[in-house]
Specification:
about 5% strand, 3 strands, mainly alpha, three-stranded antiparallel β-sheet
Amino acid sequence: MTIHQPSDLLAPSTLPAGMPDFDGVTPQLCVDALRQAMALARERWDAIAASEDAPTIENTLEAVELSEVELDRVEAVFSTMVANIGGDDWNDAESQVIPDFVDHAHRFSTHRGLYARLQALRESIDADTDPEAAYALDLSIRDFQRGGIDLPEEDQQALRDLEVTIGEAEQQFTQACVKARTTGAYRGTDAASLGVDITEAGGTVDGDAFTIPQSNSTHHPLLSQITSPIHRHALLAASLNRANGTGEVDTRPLVARLAQLREQKAHLLGFDTYADLAL
């Protein structure tokens, strides 16, 4: 199925195993679909919170978990395109939706109606009788607490602003990693000594010279196929050094900046370290 409009991205994929469909996808289609999916999820949150029925696993916990099913579908496509294709158009699209994602997450984590309903459901569950449900609810309630539900309104706004800054820094890191796949490519001569057809892995050969762009993972797939130990060593070294400042890309300042921002977030939520918050 070719994607023609945002609603196509919200619908279940017709591909085997529900795999995401990328045919016809554009940055703007993804932006529009993401915003529609977020709005749909928020409508569901309000409906769940406003229900006059007694909270149950089905009408509360499962309903919350399924409220973002369309958003999950679109985000799978969008994040794949941003992380693997990149480029100005996709980067611009990501910049557009970072505030939307932060606002969406903030609305969820500070939705007192949902929080109260989950708490009421947890109080009705006997942990000895139904330990799995109790555990799932405890995790959901903990996530709300770690999202700032109990913070004063002023601190909630500070947390939201901080999340925007973190999202922007994470975007810069992702873009740098995508760029490093090209700038950190392994270039050499004596292509015949590689012992493998590198074009199947995105490499190029020009006479005796060759270029092997990096993959997303540090361990390049060609490392297990290249027969020359010299080239294997050089390819691994290029992969390890692609973003450490020895070439055009240096992500170290971004990593340090993200660590500082995440520490600020942890302190705002009452934790000593970000590790304590994350774990």
